[in-house]
């Protein structure tokens, strides 16, 4: 009996270690309101304990997607807390100071109701871009819309809103360990890899963008030689600079409209870096 208990404890420890080792997911998604659309990159930035419960900190960073929407809704960055329970096959969400709620229940069966306005009508499997297979859940709403989940990825309309119907909001890209797992291609094509390395503390990396915010021009300094710099803003303006191995540059963006600018940098060795910078003055 003691041997069985020891083996069971070892199994639980292994499962806890597996749960603790996050696949480093990154979601790129859009959400809408009466004011327009906003786009976010969501990724884990650490762990925290709230009321003796361990959570992953999910930071949602507002980004610009060139060509996707002409009148984007300006929103601020925000964070929520997620808890993945692999034994119960559930995902929990907590938004301070609100109590924890079940975000996804992957044990649901055919005929089960989701928030009393959708019924689970189909459970099947779907092949992802890495050629793996995962369980897919399709709900039919009272308006005959569809809500589509993929296990451990979430709702294909909005990863933080399990009940949103497909076709309103969109999960555009999903990565695990820097590998693209899911991509939605029915909208304007999105370069998903541009959004996987967004860092909100560029001064702590090998590249510095300054000043930030800026008015007309900003400078960048890099330890590694830079091949190209690509810039995108919230109204679809874009521009590319070819540096051909230089480590620094002064970029004049007088003609750019004010607002958040996504900066994507490609180094000579093929690696990339993405960050954000804010332009203050209007055109």
Strand numbers in spatial order across the main sheet: 6-5-4-3-2-1-12-13
Oligomer: single chain
* Secondary-structure element series: HEEEEEEEEEEEEEEEEEE
The residue fraction in helices comes out at: under 10%
Q: What is the average of the pLDDT values?
A: 79
Terminus-to-terminus distance: 76 Å
Percent strand equals over 45%
Number of helices: 1
Q: What form results from the Cα inertia axes?
A: elongated
What does this structure look like?
With 283 residues, the protein is mostly beta strands. The protein is built from 1 helix and 18 strands. It has one helix spanning 2-20, and strands at residues 25-33, 36-50, 53-63, 78-85, 90-94, 101-105, 113-114, 118-127, 133-141, 146-150, 154-155, 170-176, 179-183, 207-210, 217-233, 238-252, 259-267, 272-279. The strands form 3 sheets. The protein has an 8-stranded antiparallel beta sheet with strand order 6-5-4-3-2-1-12-13, with no helix packed on it. It starts with a helix and ends with a strand.
Notable features of this structure?
18 strands, five-stranded antiparallel β-sheet, mainly beta, 7% helix, 283 residues, disordered N terminus, eight-stranded antiparallel β-sheet
Q: What is the secondary structure topology, with strand pairs?
A:
Blueprint: H1 2-20, E1 25-33, E2 36-50, E3 53-63, E4 78-85, E5 90-94, E6 101-105, E7 113-114, E8 118-127, E9 133-141, E10 146-150, E11 154-155, E12 170-176, E13 179-183, E14 207-210, E15 217-233, E16 238-252, E17 259-267, E18 272-279
């Amino acid at each position: 009996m003691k041997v069985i208990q020891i083996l069971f404890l070892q199994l639980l420890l292994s499962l806890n270690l597996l749960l603790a080792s996050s696949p480093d997911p990154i979601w790129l998604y859009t959400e809408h309101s009466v004011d327009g659309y906003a786009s976010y990159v969501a990724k884990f930035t650490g762990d925290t304990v709230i009321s003796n419960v361990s959570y992953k900190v999910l930071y949602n960073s507002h980004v610009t997607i060139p060509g996707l929407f002409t009148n984007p809704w300006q929103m601020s960055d925000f964070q929520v807390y997620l808890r993945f329970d692999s034994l119960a096959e559930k995902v929990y969400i907590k938004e301070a100071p609100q109590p924890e709620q079940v975000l996804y229940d992957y044990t649901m069966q055919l005929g089960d109701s989701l928030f009393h306005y959708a019924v689970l009508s189909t459970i099947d499997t779907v092949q992802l871009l890495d050629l793996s297979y995962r369980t897919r859940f399709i709900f039919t709403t009272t308006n005959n819309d569809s809500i589509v989940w993929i296990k451990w990825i979430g709702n294909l309309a909005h990863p933080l809103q399990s009940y949103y119907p497909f076709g309103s909001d969109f999960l555009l890209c999903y990565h695990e360990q820097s590998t693209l797992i899911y991509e939605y291609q029915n909208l304007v094509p999105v370069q998903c890899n541009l959004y996987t390395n967004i860092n909100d503390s560029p001064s702590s990396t090998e590249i510095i963008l300054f000043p930030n915010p800026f008015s007309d021009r900003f400078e960048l300094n890099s330890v590694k030689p830079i091949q190209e710099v690509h810039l995108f803003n919230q109204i679809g303006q874009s521009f590319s600079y070819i540096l051909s191995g230089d480590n620094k540059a002064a970029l004049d963006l007088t003609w750019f409209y004010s607002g958040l600018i996504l900066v994507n940098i490609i180094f000579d060795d093929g690696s990339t870096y993405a960050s954000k910078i804010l332009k203050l003055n209007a055109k």
